[in-house]
Write a structure and sequence with these properties.
Strand order of the largest sheet: 3-2-1-4-5
Number of helices: 3
Structural class: alpha/beta
Radius of gyration: 40 Å
Strand content: 5-15%
CATH class of one domain: Alpha Beta
Largest sheet: 5 strands, mixed
Distance between the termini: 103 Å
Helix content: 25-40%
């Protein structure tokens, strides 16, 4: 025989679950406080700018234009170079300057690679450091 303590109706059963409503309320309050207390982050880059803005920038060094024609003729700023010895003497003068000028190498589309390679090797051997190719759009086709 079983003994029942309390009423026999099933409506008065004890609920054995945790009430999560106050827990959610506390978590939301803590989340709002956390959002309020976080400092605003700026995405700025701090730069130290020069104070004396009246200085004008230095004059850029001149640019030397070396063109190589389809038959191997070398032009120095539009002037024909007679032979490789004269080219090397001019490249040596460029390399010896304190502030080296930029050397722009403009080969013709039909020029053989050996002519271009000879000029580049001479410039490298003599110490020209600022050399670059211009007019590359002709090779895009």
């Amino acid at each position: 025989m079983a003994m029942n303590v309390g009423s026999s109706s099933s409506d008065d059963d004890v609920i054995m679950e945790i009430n999560t409503t106050p827990l959610i309320d506390v978590m939301l309050v803590l989340l709002i406080m956390l959002i309020i207390t976080i400092p605003v982050q700026t995405h700025a880059v701090k730069l130290n700018m020069p104070v004396n803005a009246q200085q004008q920038p230095a004059k850029p060094p001149p640019v030397v234009e070396i063109s190589i024609d389809f038959d191997g003729t070398v032009l120095w700023n539009g002037e024909s170079v007679a032979n490789s010895a004269e080219l090397e003497s001019r490249l040596r003068a460029v390399a010896s300057e304190q502030e080296q000028p930029e050397v722009h190498l403009r080969p013709n589309k039909l020029a053989a690679y050996k002519y271009v390679a000879t000029v580049m090797a001479s410039a490298q051997r003599l110490g020209v450091t600022k050399i670059g190719f211009v007019g590359n759009e002709q090779f895009a086709d």
